[in-house]
Amino acid sequence: MDKSFYAGNRQALYARLKEDALAVVFSGVLIRQTNDQYYQFFADRNFMYLTGIDQSEAVLLGYGGKGAEMKETLFIPAPDLRWEKWNGQRVKADEATEISGAQDVKYLQDFKKQLDQALMSGGYSTVYLPLVKFSADEPDSPAYQLAKYIRDRFPHIIIKDLMPHVKALRVIKKPCEIVAMRKAEEITGAGIVAMMRAAKPGMTELDLRAEYMYAIMKNGAALPGSIPIIATGVNNFCIHYHGHDSIAQDGDMILNDVGVNYNHMVTDVSRGWPVNGRFNDRQRALYQCAVETSKHMFDIIKPGMPMGDVDAIIKRVNYEHMRDMGLCKTWDDIGKYMWHGGAHHIGFDVHDVVEIAMDTSLAPGMIFCVDIGIYVEDWGIGFRLEDNCLVTEDGCENLSKDIPFTIEDIEAVMK
Ligand SMILES: [Mn+2]
After folding, report:
1. Residues by chain with Cβ below 5 Å of ion ligand 1
2. Which of 30, 267, 268, 294 is the most exposed place for a label (fewest CB within 10 A)?
3. Domains of the chain and CATH, by start
4. Distance from the CA of 408 to the center of ligand 1, in angstroms?
């Protein structure tokens, strides 16, 4: 992604806001893991989408208004040679301009001064901040802290949530995002194939994870898309399983639900496959249901279809297959075997933060997962078949189609 992408994203965001509005987006702060060690920094995804700058303690201050001339300032932490000697170089002002296209770059200590001046000037009524919490008791992010600061000092200023505006932009992917996503899919495939090729009964989940991580890193992805879910046997019945020390027994199915982060784009692909390389009859019958359902979805997904239909049709079609094989007697039975929804968007986040009500129509440039999860506890078989669907002008494309998908593909790779 180059600076024209990031600058275009900011321009589109500012154009959605009135001229008397400001927007503030923080990159985030380092989070302490233990004693004097910090977690690897992972920049706020909205900040990343708007600037491309992977730097803690940076702030974007944008001014609302349409037009090519953007009014904005990007604040970065000032150079600190001692700190940088230990922890690596901070982004410099000229680098920040080169990456993001932002022309006005200042140091962080000037941020509050500039914000105060703007709010004191009388020219602004509203400050937009990305206000994201999953529970009211969650600790305040820098955006919430700033909201309190503004309320204390400038009670006449209206605080609004920036998220609906960012979500509206992030839902449609630009050509350069799709290019990065294709490369990310290729790397994800290398990781999944490496696991399939190495697999044999007696391996631990950690052995398989090592194969996956080695392959994706050798192929240029520094990070997985999320914590890899690589499970065997009954662990497959835990949807977000993060353990790693169970041993895959002959006859077990492996469930992988994995992705990579490449150029900030994140994939999310699941496969279910027998650790011994041969599907047994029950595994074959269940997996074939998921294959048929998935193929059907990629045949019918196209612009204009309501997003809510994707989930509903996955469930309906998969029910019909499971009824035909005798597992479901009535429609109510499907809830016993399908535990979760089948469609979430991907992009800068693995569960992408996008504006998508259930009655939203699909549009070209959307990318979401088609995820068919089947869990038959009585048989000890659980897996997901999850692919990444790009909506095109007249239909859709399975971006992960080259990753072994059918029973024949998987058994051939594992020979
Ligand atoms: Mn997934």
Report:
1. 257, 268
2. 30
3. 3-170 (3.40.350.10), 175-413 (3.90.230.10)
4. 22
